Amino acid sequence: MLRAIYPGSFDPVTFGHIDIIRRSASMVDELIVGVLNNNAKIPLFSVEERVRMLEKVLKDMPNVKCIPFEGLLVDFAHETGARMVIRGLRAITDFEYELQMAQTNHKLRPDVETVFLTTSLEYSYLSSTTVKEVAAFGGDISQFVPEYVADRIKEKMKQKGECKS
Fold it and tell me: Which residues bind substrate (predicted)?
């Protein structure tokens, strides 16, 4: 069984993430969407909220599991039995960082390979940061995230007093 991990913070999950997840899920027997609890960032959503949102929008993909993690990605891969890490690339600037991480991960765990997928052209500009910024200024984010996620973002920003509309 080929098991892979697609890691990220997914704060929030975007159509770009979902595109990479769909494409990845078709290439492996099981895809684990690893939801990173990154203490270096202050997320809009808790890791539990991000997992719930992902589970909701990915419910039609039976070979996809959403699991929170913290620490080293390669340790998480080892714990879950994943032999492959999938990373999406939007631009050449992503490649430089991702290549360095892939090489470091390979040094730490040579049995875990990293595979890069280029982002579909229609999502190459999209990032979670951009979505949050547009939402904070009251912009329409329906073209960036599923409706369920857009509703959660608006609710969360109103709770935190970050939304201009």
Answer: 9, 41, 73, 87
Among 109, 108, 106, 89, residue whose Cα is nearest residue 98: 89
pTM of this prediction? Answer: 0.93
Q: Which are the catalytic amino acids?
A: 17, 41, 90, 128
CATH label of the domain that carries residue 53: 3.40.50.620
**Domain limits for position 10:** 3-123
How many separate domains does the chain show?
1
- Predicted confidence (pLDDT) per residue in 35-46, tens digit: 998 777 789 999
Residue 98, marked binder: yes
Specify if 23 maps to a domain: yes
Please list the residues that pair with 118 across neighbouring strands: 89
Which residues share a beta bridge with 34? 7, 67
- 116 with 89: CB under 8 angstroms? yes
Residue 151 maps to a domain:
no
